[in-house]
Amino acid sequence: MSSSRPWLPHISLPTLIGIVLLAIHLIMAIGAPWLAPYPPNTIDTNNAFQAPSSQHVFGTDRYGRDILARVIYGGQVALVISLASAVLSVLLGGLIGVIVAYVGGIVDEITMRVIDAVISIPGILLLLVIVTGLGTGTPVIILAMVLSYMPGVIRVIRATVQEYVPRDFIVAARLRGERVSDIVWVELLPNILDVLCVEFAMRASWIVLSVSGLSFLGFGVNPPTPDWGLMVNENRAVLVLSPWGTIFPMIAVATLVVSLNVVSDEIAKVFGIDRGVRR
Amino acid sequence: MASYVFGRCFSALVTLFVVAAIIFVATEVLPGDVATAVLGRDATPKRLAALRAQLQLDRPASARYMDWLYAFVQGDWGYSLARPKQAILPLIGERVRNTLWLSGIAGVIGVLLSLLLGVVAGLKRNTWFDTLVSTLSLIGMSLPEFVIGSLLMLLFGVIWALLPAVTIVQPQATFTALFPSMILPAVTLVIVMVAYILRMVRSSVIDVAHSDYVQMAYLKGVPHRRVVWHHIIPNALIPTINAIALTVAWLIGGVVVVETVFNFPGIGRLLTSAVSDRDLPLVQALGLVGAVFYIGINIVADIATLWLTPRLRTQYWRVADE
Amino acid sequence: MNTPLLSVDNLTIGFPNTTSTVTPVVRDVSVHIAPGMRIGVVGESGCGKSTLAYALLGMIRGAGVRVHGTVTYAGAQLFDMPPAQLQHIRGAEIALVPQNAGQSLAPHRTVYAQIAEVLEIHQQLQGDAAWQRVVQLLADMRLRNPARIARRYPHQLSGGQQQRVALAMALAGQPKVLVLDEPTTGLDVTTQAQLLALLHALTNDTDMAMVLVSHDLGVIAQTCQQVMVMYAGEVVEMGDTADVFQQPHHPYTRGLIAAMPQLTATRLPYAMPGQMRRSATDQQCAFLDRCAFAQSVCATTAPTLEFVAHTRAVRCHHWQTVATHDDVDSTATPLLDRAPVGEGTPLLAVRQVSATYHQPDWRWWVRTPPQLVVAQVDITLTPGHTCAVVGESGSGKSTLARVITGLHQPAAGNVYLDETVLPATVTQRSQDARRRIQLIFQNPDLSLNPRHTVAELLYRPQAVFFGRTRAQALPHTISMLQQMRLDEQYLNRVPQQLSGGEKQRVAIARAFLADPDVVVCDEVVSALDVSVQASLLQLLVDIQRQRGTAYLFIAHDLAVVRAVAHTAIVLFAGHVCEQGATAEVFAVPHHPYTMQLLSAVLTVPRRTVQPQVNLPADDTTLTHGGCPFRQRCPIAIPHLCADVVPPWQQVAGSHTFRCHHPPDVLASLRDQFALPTT
After folding, report:
1. I need a labelling partner for C137 at 20 to 30 A (CA). Which of C289, C396, C416, C622 fits?
2. Using the 8-state DSSP alphabet, how is residue C211 labeled?
3. Omega into A40 within 30° of 0, i.e. cis?
């Protein structure tokens, strides 16, 4: 019964749609080798620019590659990159945030200066600057995402921890002479776990957006990796001739981000945390 | 007040110094030889040597950084690598104008529209209007800029062919010549921007509408319309100033993608081609321009917030009768 | 009796809950308010008194709904009224002074703008005329320099000033009914006394009716002719204040009065068992499980509100028994046996401790001088004794607790444990020293980790101090819980699932699991309802008797201090004014500040004499040199007190005070104050 478990949220229809969409995306990504009708990169120039048919449900692109297969495998790429980046950003950011807030003083001052500076390079500009220096490719993308999204996590976690450190229960732990590691692990962590969860869900959706945007510009993963943004970029020139090459990856990225946004909204609501603006 | 502005500007300068360092480090100090990175692996030794000399790669990075920054402040932004003999400053100049037109129009419309929709949705919480607006904003912020841009292009540029799908005018074109090409990119930016700011405005309005002092206003017998205009809106809009500033930062980034989608001749389009060409001086200059713009907007937002919030204003401003 | 101005008839207000029923918070309440009537509504938190107060203005807060009943003003029903009509009544006919003025004043507008808004809407007064009227209203509130206050923003005012501004705003519309929701909660006792005196002066001999809602019986006794006692949403007793408080007919009223600590009492306050349950069925008395008079009929039939005299009503089957039963004190513990002070070796000693705070300034290039908050304080604590530190907010009493526990490094002086100097900060102290001095915080909501279960909360000190495993700790935890009159069921609950009193018991248990010698209690009962407060005081005294623990008891409530402390130290702006055995200091106070504090204590039944001696407005600024109290002192000597630090004078034994005046001058001042006599 819901009354005996007050933490179990009442699920509304939009939330349910979001959760189902996310589940579909996860299943598609994990089951890609079995679900995709063709390998994603098999070139078949005889069948280029095919309209959707029973043979190729989403049609084919200019090299005759099956778009459905590429959309399914593209989900794998998008989820791997964004989950890896989100996990790294939240873990590293959380760790640095806690340390900085707890140590304070000059360490805090310097770190926050650098973070202010990183945040002052607007969104995609920072990504492009990093790409200019390091080139493209999956590891670089993940690194770029972590570098540009972690500062925001550090800021949020630092502020949360700073709010908790003067609280009486932390003071009580200090009065007992608990080790700093125990205070962080036993007293602090259970309290900031909800913020970390919300940060993770929120950043995951932003990272999907950024990754696809970067790929769209041609600075994301390297071809021929099936990536939604890259697919839109490649098929954009033939938008009028064969719109399916653009439409289906766009639908895929939009539904994934919608589902992530709905789910992170719901997590935030359950924990009673106000979702801020981007960054 | 004056000393607050002074202090705020000073800290902005410090931040900018660090920003410049980050951009410099990210582009020049990273692994490998910059000259090889720029010219590619099959470059001739002669060209490599020439480029090394041009970039003074034999000098330590810190010295090059200080020189670069000093020259930058002096207005000497150097020359593009990919477009020989093109000085960066004039190259950027005409495109900055175009981008400012585009983002300025989008920014003004977007802010006004999101304030209007956000306030109404917040006041009419849980009505069909609120649900509609909130759902649309959730979808709006979930669609990447290139998706919105491509869809608009497909609908208005191709299917109905009402507006130019891509820009074909030159960067130097006049505003009137450029204007038709500006509409679709601007609409794209407005859609995403509204989606973000609106959510902030809405939740801020809801917070204030549930505050003790708004309840007190009703209990004083203040009519609803007056409560809305005199109590709710002024207090709800103050926290949105910073949200708007943050979204403007996004606008700078979003412009890059949108300009690429529509082939619009602004700094965003210039930046993507500079990145493709590995045109280091140009990327550095553009990165710094973006950061200056962002930091400037934030200073304005901070000062505006301070000015409009009595609690902060009186803290930084010695009261005359004290 | 006059025709009622404002009538509440059979009003029931509830909050919808998860099982699609409504939990009533106000049940079937009827009250008729006539012009000039001053009625108090009293009850503990959650009894529905605030909900009732807002309903008087036709407002139900939050998700509440009106189930049935009406509120009628001048023949019109407020809940059926269109908003356009209701707004002519709110503020103009019925006005509210809210509980938390600080949050109820709009932060973006000046005091003038907020009061003028009422004048503009209800009296069409604008411009110069409005300004004159606002300044006049603020002057009526006895605010110094009203024109300056009018130009200020709410955050620039002190709590007392904010409350007066809220009162001025309510009176601006010249209402016929003034509703006050906990108007003095959170204010210092002297500020409260001033505000109540002001309220008395403003409402006495006028036609304005007043409804005052408070948890504090003393506040009601001081200001209201009639009182209505609420319990679990119901009116359990009503009548003339003096009658009700002198001879309560309902066991709950009786319990509330007995739970109030008294300055003159010779016993600990009496603790009511159990706690309020809101969702009691209609088939039984809501007070059943806490009642000492309950019989079988109480469990099967709910009592009705029965009129037992013209204006007196009570909701109890056995009110006649209750009314004539006069042995309230039979179960209460007699006041502590007062061992002679100064005997036994000192356990904890504070010697010449001064503490400062550095006010952080955003202008980091400006060096501001540190602010002195504690000045040369001496305290000696012997085993098994309680020493109280009394003072208003900002007196430095909490800083003193932080210095003793090692959370705040003193600017001068030392803390001694067993006559050896303790290191200044908690990290430098030995584990044993940390164990022997425990601190209990004011608010258990903040001092208990919200994510830990009771078992985990009580395990931490055992792990740290005794190296026990969870299994080893469990028996100790359970036996400690039992001592706190909690049981094993609580082990797996988190703080959110506990009531305020239960949380504080867990916090006390945590402190005693370290087996301490000294416990610093920082306002440990001030956030609790009186009945819960009484049971916690009882608990603390019992443990002290068993274990011989020494308490440093920090409090602002003098009556509580009188009940538990052997010795007391009166602190003003960080300086000790007077100290000695509690009984002596409270019986024959010598320092003018102690007298002010004692005269401001509210009693039930109300004392007949009002505090007549002038209490200057509450914008105390800390002054350097001379006597710190001189700005508020009624008998300050112009130059002497400003320039020369007053000398210590001895009354008898350890009872000393610091003042320039000779004892005979102070004795005549004492006669002017209406002090409660022992």
Report:
1. C622
2. E
3. no
**Whole-number Å distance between alpha carbons of C74 and C646:** 60
Distance from CA of C586 to the nearest CA of B (A): 39
Compute the count of residue pairs across chains B and C with CB atoms less than 8 Å apart: 90
- List strand residue ranges (DSSP E) for C298-385, in order: 306-307, 313-314, 348-357, 371-381
CB A120, CB A242: distance < 8 Å:
no
Of C457, C463, C495, C452, the C-alpha closest to A190 is C452
**Beta carbons of C407 and A172 less than 8 Å apart:** no
Mutate to test the interface with A, among B10, B13, B17, B22 (most CBs of A within 10 A): B22
Q: Which residues of B touch A122 (CB under 8 A)?
A: 249-250, 252-253, 290-291, 294
Q: Which residues pair with C439 in a beta bridge?
A: C520
- Tally the C-alpha atoms within 13 A of residue B200's C-alpha that lie toward its C-beta: 23
Cβ within 8 Å of residue C388, ≥6 positions away: C553, C554, C555, C561, C564, C565, C567, C568, C569, C582
- Per the CB < 8 A criterion, the answer to whether C553 and C522 are in contact is no
pLDDT in tens, B63-104: 888 888 888 888 777 777 777 677 888 888 888 888 888 888
Cβ contact (<8 Å) for A169 and C446? yes
Q: Is the omega angle on the peptide bond into residue C35 within 30 degrees of 0, that is, cis?
A: no
Both tokens of A263, joined, read: 């789910």
pLDDT digits (tens, 9 = 90+) for B265-292: 888 888 888 888 878 888 888 888 888 8
Write out pLDDT tens, residues C244-289.
988 889 999 988 888 888 887 667 888 888 777 765 567 788 888 8
State whether residue C531 is helix, strand or coil.
helix
Nearest to B314 among C57, C156, C173 (CB): C156
Q: Which two tokens mark C276? A: 């309020």
Which token pair is C552?
């440093």
Beta-bridge partner residues of C26: C13
Whether residues B150 and A212 touch (CB distance < 8 A) is answered with no
DSSP letters along A28-60, please? HHHTHHHH-SS-TT---GGGTTPPS-SSSTT-B
DSSP state of C59: -
Interface of C with B (CB under 8 A): 54, 57, 59, 61, 83-84, 86-92, 95-96, 98, 100, 103-108, 117-118, 121-122, 148, 151, 153, 155-156, 169, 173, 362-363
The shortest C-alpha distance from C105 to chain B (Å) reads 5
* Nearest of A200, A187, A197, A199 to residue A161 by alpha carbon: A187
